[in-house]
Specification:
Mean pLDDT: 95
Oligomer: single chain
Structural class: mainly beta
Number of strands: 10
Helix content: under 10%
Radius of gyration: 14 Å
Strand order of the largest sheet: 2-10-9-4-5-6
Number of helices: 0
């Protein structure tokens, strides 16, 4: 059974930082591109960042970010721990949302997510 358990959210002031973690289980984690998504209240789910499988040809895995978080967020993965991380710096009020992780393609059943609230 595929499962994602997200953690690390909270309330932070604008300009602050948070590190999210997501532990995945039920599939061969190292074989899948993994992503962080977010959903703000009343809005649809948005793709935030993706880390692809390291093919050994490039020096490091290919990573993609949505424009609004480039230069502020960093995605990483630990294939031994089946965990994907999202380091979020210089947070803005518009980053407020529930954050989820899932596979990049054909997302599986969603976890509960972790709430991130950026407010003074």
């Amino acid at each position: 059974q595929v499962q994602f358990v997200e953690s690390g959210g909270g309330l932070v002031q604008p300009g602050g930082s948070l590190r999210l973690s997501c532990v995945a289980s039920g599939f061969i984690f190292e074989q899948y591109a993994m992503s962080w998504y977010r959903q703000a209240l009343g809005q649809g789910r948005e793709l935030v960042a993706t880390i692809f499988v390291h093919d050994g040809i490039t020096e490091s895995p290919i990573i993609e970010y949505t424009d609004s978080v480039k230069g502020r967020f960093t995605i990483s993965r630990d294939n031994v721990k089946n965990t994907v991380y999202l380091q979020m710096n210089s947070l803005k009020p518009e980053d407020t949302a529930v954050y989820y992780c899932n596979t990049r393609y054909s997302p599986r059943a969603w976890g509960q997510g972790t709430q991130v609230t950026v407010s003074s």
